[in-house]
Amino acid sequence: MEEWVGGIWHRLVTRSAGGHHPDAVVYLAEMERPLGILYRAFGGDRGHRVGGAALDRHHGRRRWLQRLAGSGERVALASVENDTLRLPASIDCFADRELNRDLYLWLAALAACAAKIPSPHGGWLARNQQATKDALVRFPGLAGRYRRLVAAHLAQRLAPDALPLEEAAQENAIRAALLDPGSVAQMPTGRRKARPLQPVMLWLSPLSHDAAQTSENSPLPAPDGAAAQAAESDSAEETEHKHRAERVDLPQPKSPFILMFRAESLPTWGEYVHVNRALDDEPDPYAKVAARDLDRLSLARGGAPTRSKVKFDLDLPSDSSDDLRLGEGIPLPEWDYRQGLLLPGHVRLQPMQAREASPAALPGHLASPARRLRNRFAALVDSRRWQRGQSDGDEIDLDACIRYFADRRTGVTPAPGLYCARRPLDRDLACLLLADLSMSTDAWVSNAHRVIDVVRDAAFLFCEALTATGDRFGVYGFSSVKRGHVRFHLVKDFAAPYDASARGRIAALRPGYYTRMGAAVRQATRILAEQPANRRLLLLLSDGKPNDLDEYDSRYGIEDTRMAVVEARRIGITPFCVTIDRAGGAYLPHLFGQDGFLMISDPERLPERLPKLYAELSGL
Asked: What domain count does the chain have?
């Protein structure tokens, strides 16, 4: 009974305190994709993705009811951190849902303009005012939205008359800066230090920074935001609660001899406690609940290294047990986005072939779907298609006749070809299937299948379908161990037939190392460029973003892969990525464009989905 009454009292006081309107809430998950497009269209860095912002204590003055209810202590403000535009996971500060949605749009435009301002330009107040002025000048259509947001936000802030003198002066300065950006040169100061300001929802956080790299002791970015398809993933809880992280030095152990006990020496909830999470076998089920009460998550390196406790070797196998190496390796360039240069010969790609790959038949569980695919694709290829604008044919082309007589009436020489003819489809297409064979493909997607099993089945059905079409195709795989050893596995080249030997090499595919995707895409582009075909398609199967042991596991790898995709398109090759990574929506639009990738939420559907996708892309 006591808990029931307490729950009713808590809900009543919280609602009375205000500041939140659950009925008008707008979530970042539903706005993430359009916000990413708008942010880049506004001039933001194309390599930045959209993620959730951390909830921080602002320590500003609150209303009496908010203090009674314990609400309004934390706020998530927009910021630009490293390679991420961080926005609140949800916005419900206004009673009008359209206003909450407009606030997302405004923050995206503001962040894009703030990135153009040189870093030494003033402080938090000056930069936000300048960014606001720039946004209103560059995008006049946002002026009406901005005025409505300012009016609604000022109505929610504490009135200057209700504040102490020095805080009232600062609040007046904030209001003037919001109403007339650029009119306030600096924040008023008094004889004594005033309380921190109330948070300004229309501005970027004072902690906003755009660091290209994060050093050992610098603040760490908050965890990644939700994926674009949050509705199909388990990231709802991760999106709701974000935390800031920081690097700290490992505290030195104190002397075990206690000369005098002092109660204040006991650690408080907010102080650093040494917990070695790197060696925990099982996660703490209450860690997430406890983390919600912390302002920052502190990470330190120290103690005995993990390698002294666990012997785990990721070195390459010996030549006798490794796959066959084909040649001495191929030097390839790599794009360094920081210098804006293509580094020649920076990567060494090693062509390889499975050593233990005995000729094999098609697996029994794929016999039935393979037969259906062969019959379907053969029927599609053999079917005749209507071709318009022919000089003779089976039927008259009415559209061409109308244009013909219209051109004659206007004095224009009419174009010939007034017939339609049913003729066999002339296919001149080459396709290369490039499979990611990194160690992450060893993960289980169900009780019966791993990712690598799904990749093998997809490759089998893909080859069976293309054999029926007569299209030229090749199959390759890749993994890497730093830039000096990018493994490029030959499964089936364009000149070889799809036979028992090729099926044996598909069956021999196994998880490798890491994912230096840019080098693999460049080599696949070179192979495709040598094929005499009018249309050339590069299909990439992946289960995660580019990464490696070195600096490639960062924005460096993303930008290098994107440049490799751009290079392929320049010579007429069409790259397309098929991924089972649910977080792919955060980086794939930047790599392949909005229409250059497909995310498959159920990995076990990949084998049946891949041939159908090829039919769509090739025009069958």
From this structure: 3
